[in-house]
């Protein structure tokens, strides 16, 4: 089926771009990482579309690929970071990283093996379009919605305070 | 492998390595597990980045990667359980993540002004 092929393509793109964010063999520049993070997020929005989460796909592109990544790039340019000089990677750090990531992956694999196959589930019908999600946001989730708006205000005030020249 | 599913997958395609034989056994029908595998791998990648990279900004980007993988898992669970509450949850996560990124980056800028470095190993003043 076309959607299955599309899933494999998008999943492969997401994982490849994600790997390039973390460990790019050609460049240690943070700007490169940021650009690959944008690509990761956009291919993940494609996965959201495959999951019929249309509203979230749009929000993902608007908020993450738009606002958040612009913020990242802005800070990278502001700090004027040079190409990260090759410091010697500490062996302990590398070993700790590989061991902990291996442990996490082992836990995921074990738990996936322990689940029952989902073949006999009914075909999913939930569609996350804007109308449905908007109705839910303004009825069941009205209080969290308002709290989140206050949270955004608090974050804005905090950022302004933090980025003042003389912190008191 | 004790699980019957895996034994069946191995038996059906004995000449192929087991992830591929498993995929073929599932007839490549994309289900919940496939999305969860992508999410888990993405999470592992982000964790690897946070632990091994030493640049504060790149570590922060890896953190975003981990957050996104959790979002992917939530959306796929929401889709395959026919329950839209998960997607509302993801909406809130995205909003909070945006606020968190703004505050975190402001902290990094403030730190950079004081120390002239965005490298984790240069920020050791709290080390004993």
Which consecutive residue ranges of chain B, at least 5 long each, have pLDDT under 50? none
Specify the helix fraction band of chain A: over 70%
Mean pLDDT of chain B, rounded to whole units?
A: 82
- Give me the Rg of chain A, rounded: 21 Å
The major beta sheet of chain B can be summarized as: none
Q: Tally the structural domains of chain A.
A: 2
Give the C-level CATH assignment of the domain at 31-117 in chain B: Mainly Alpha
Q: Which percent range describes the beta-strand content of chain B?
A: under 5%
| Helix/strand class of chain B | mainly alpha
- Low-confidence spans of chain A: pLDDT under 50, at least 5 residues? none
Number of helices of chain B: 5
Sheet/helix structural class of chain A:
mainly alpha
Task: Record the SSE blueprint.
The complex is a heterodimer of chains A (168) and B (128).
Chain A: H1 2-22, H2 30-50, H3 54-79, H4 91-114, H5 130-138, H6 142-162
Helix pairs in contact in A: 1-2, 2-3
Chain B: H1 4-12, H2 18-25, H3 32-52, H4 56-80, H5 85-115
Helix pairs in contact in B: 1-2, 3-4, 4-5
